[in-house]
Amino acid sequence: MPRDAPPADGPFDIVPVDAIRDGRATDAYFERTRTTLEHAGKNPRVVAEVTADQFPTGEFELLGGVKDAAHLLEGLPIDVDAMREGRLFDGGPVMRIEGDYLDFARYETSLLGFLSHASGCATAALDVRRAAPESQVLSFGARHVHPSIAAMVERSALVAGLDGISHVAGGEVIGHEASGTMPHALLIAFGSGHQEDAWRAFDEAVDASVPRVALVDTYSDEKDEALRAAETLGERLDSIRLDTTGSRRGDFRHIVQEVRWELDLRGYDDVGIFVSGGLGPDDLRELRDVVAGFGVGGYVSNADPVDFALDIVERDGEPCAKRGKLSGAKQVYRTSDGAHHVGLADRPGPTDGEELLEPLLRDGELVREFDVEKAARRSAADADDVDF
Ligand SMILES: O=P(O)(O)OC[C@H]1O[C@H](OP(=O)(O)OP(=O)(O)O)[C@H](O)[C@@H]1O
Fold first, then answer.
1. What's the helix, strand, coil split of the chain in %, to 5?
2. Confidence class for position 1, pLDDT limits 50, 70, 90
3. Ligand 1 cavity residues, CB under 6 Å
4. For 148-178, how does the pLDDT look when each residue is reduced to its tens digit (9 = 90+)?
5. By mean pLDDT, which of 3-17, 21-35, 53-67, 221-235 is the weakest?
6. How far apart are CA 163 and CA 65, in angstroms?
7. Cα–Cα distance, 323 to 199 (Å, whole number)
8. What is the ipTM of this complex?
9. CA-CA distances (angstroms) from residue 5 to 16, 26, 190, 216?
């Protein structure tokens, strides 16, 4: 262990924030690179770019992680241009860094991690959003991932336009209050046959601002429990939630329609139906006309990271690149038809092209603000005129 590394004395296997900030959250070969370049007296001025695909593919993904990436690089003597959080990308750089290589080399690992993981979750969340544009969709997936990344998952869900999140501390980090009502554990704590007591106690105990959403699949048939919940809470019941386990699901759409029928027949037309449990975009398309909303977890939280890489494309003013990558500092343009174009930054772009790489840091100073809601509006606008 290097002498300057602090002892591993924390209770959890979580890389500390300080290690990310000071560049120790890095792959060891960057430390060897620094040692070697310093030994050789080399520290070239470079332009480096973060890119997934070299050329536009027409397969759009949603950019996340920009805020964390900006704070990672803040204070370094470098200039950074980047696409905004919540913009679509499909090829060419999403970020461009100019500076002396050793000033930022050790940050590559964390930089790519921030951008790759958040963009993967945001892209999956956008798939979900587009599958049910009119429905309420909540992010339920924090349970599947390490708690240290819950805020990233929830922010990515919101950037893609999902309507709410479930993770309390994650919400505190990103400034968005978590929502949620009851797990099966609450019903089980009251015992089989006593679901009414659980729903009633929830209604008595929980703040009036929280919607009354009764979970209705714990011990008996969904239709039976839905009607019992409606009779127990009457007009106080806002919604029911069906989280029917996979082994009992059969035709889930039919179950939902049957419950809807029986509620309507008895005058409970205003009671909404929420569904959850292992849902993805295809399920949302299949159910969106018969439910009010969805809880989606693993599809978003377990998304594959985007395969970003950081590559040097200019060294001491001369274009350069490793095999398979494109030399030269680039700009990415979005034209009015929603298509993206990659060109050299010092050449004219398409006449109606909007430049997507915008200033993020100037000599280490942050020149941009971050706002989740604005990012969500950006992703909705970008996605509007693109065929996925
Ligand atoms: O399947 P996902 O899309 O990842 O969604 C996350 C979870 O949310 C629901 O759990 P619920 O709130 O009912 O929890 P409980 O079964 O622990 O009570 C559902 O059972 C999923 O396991």
1. 40, 20, 40
2. very low
3. 140-141, 144, 183-185, 243, 276-279, 295-298
4. 999 999 999 999 999 999 999 999 999 999 9
5. 3-17
6. 19
7. 63
8. 0.92
9. 12, 13, 50, 52
**Amino acid identity, residue 161?**
G
Nearest CA, atom 2, ligand 1: 297
* C-alpha 67 to ligand 1 mean position (Å): 29
Q: What is the DSSP string of 202-256?
A: HHHHS-TTS--EEE--SSS-HHHHHHHHHHHHGGG--EEEE---GGGTSSHHHHH
Element holding 47 (H helix, E strand): strand 45-51
* 341, β-bridge pairs: 333
Query: Average pLDDT for residues 217-226, to the nearest whole number?
Result: 96
CA distance 366 to 129: 31
Q: Between β-strands 61-62 and 88-89, what pairing exists: parallel, antiparallel or unpaired?
A: antiparallel
Query: Do 311 and 322 meet the contact criterion of CB atoms below 8 Å apart?
Result: yes
**DSSP per-residue codes, 310-335:** EEEEEETTEE---TTS--S-EEEEE-
Residue of the nearest CA to atom 14 in ligand 1? 183
300 CA to centre of ligand 1 in angstroms: 13
CA distance 272 to 264: 11
CA gap 281, 96 in Å, rounded? 33
Which of ligand 1's atoms lies nearest the C-alpha of 180?
A: 12
Q: φ and ψ at 245, to 5 degrees?
A: -65, 150
All structural domains of the chain, each given as residue ranges with its CATH number in brackets, are: 17-121+307-386 (3.20.140.10), 131-301 (3.20.20.70)
Q: State how far the Cα of 375 lies from the Cα of 162, in Å rounded to an integer.
A: 12
Closest residue (by CA) to atom 12 of ligand 1?
183
- Report the DSSP pairing between strands 272-276 and 239-242: parallel
The reported pTM is 0.96
C-alpha 46 to ligand 1 mean position (Å): 48
